[in-house]
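Form P-L/3: holo structure prediction, ligand acetyl coenzyme *A.
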Amino acid sequence: MSFRILGTGKSVPSYVLTNDEMATIVDTSDEWIRTRTGIRERRVCTTESLSDLTTEASKLALEDAGVSPEELDLIICATFRGEYCSPAQSCIVQRNIGATCPAFDVNAACSGFIYSLDVAAGFFARKTVKKVLVVAADNVTNSVDWEDRSTCVLFGDGCGAAVLGEGDDLLSVNLKTKGDLDSLVIPHGENTFPKYELGSQRPTLRMNGREVYKFAVGAMSEGLEKAIRDAGVEQEDINFVIPHQANIRIIDAARHKLHIPEDRYVCNIDRYGNTSAASVPIALDEINRAGKLKNGDLIAMSAFGAGLTSASCVLRWNK
Ligand code: ACO
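OUTPUT (holo model):
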């Protein structure tokens, strides 16, 4: 027993920060950002808090699932940095939606949604839950150095959520961690905004882009290959691949190592940039709400992030 997905939701900030506006903040250009990353614009929290995003996405996922907050047996929030050190972000969601169940956070950076699905699967396997909300959100723009063009252009804010019920639709999952403090570090800092006016006065995200790039291509291609093999299906059987939206070149490089047609890859990086843990569930919600998914479809997901963590899984859609 694992679970089936009953509903999905997403929430993104209203402010759209385009590449052209980004070029007024740091020495960059729309052309550089588009050709090196595939990003055209991203959403940035200006008036919204992480709690606003997580609450809205959770309510939408519950509505899509036809599940009331009182029915939830567990809430897991994937985030590298909730709005408070404590209480956990999931506790704020529980309070805001009117649920009464246990709630805790999982920090696996951008891989957090898939890690949380696997944690939830354990509760279902022990038969201690019937309905679980997994909500994944990060306010990455609050952690970047808005004077460092090599990182600040890459990220955006957002939240994605899924409500899970009893079922057998998680066919395989493959989690990995390679403890590392050199490639990508996101230190603690205060929760104030607008962040990009604060410059580099705070501890901010530091990344060796080339190292992360190399790690990411291997983690994504090998992770997907193993998850698909473990699910007992062929690569050609996969209907949708939802890759972490960090850089279109990473997705393309991983894709070239696999045998899944290009049109099965879900990509929205042009509109959101890298939204960390929210990236995979936002894309899932978009294809769900666009009516692209039909029962029986196989979805492969893959993510990587600070840690360095990586995670891949195969799910059957059966809503
Ligand atoms: N605008 C213009 N020029 C830039 C910019 C910018 N925004 N950023 C860097 N450059 C310059 C550099 O200074 C460098 O100039 P130089 O040749 O004169 O020294 C040149 O562009 C090339 O820089 P590279 O770093 O080699 O560029 P690259 O093609 O490797 O792309 C990038 C950099 C986009 C960061 C890429 O390495 C990447 O995507 N890495 C992976 C990042 C990632 O996936 N992170 C995941 C984080 S997930 C999480 O857990 C939060």
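COMMENT: Residues 28, 32-33, 36-37, 109-110, 149-150, 153, 184, 207, 209-210, 212-213, 216, 246-247, 250, 274, 276, 305-306 surround acetyl coenzyme *A (CB under 6 Å).
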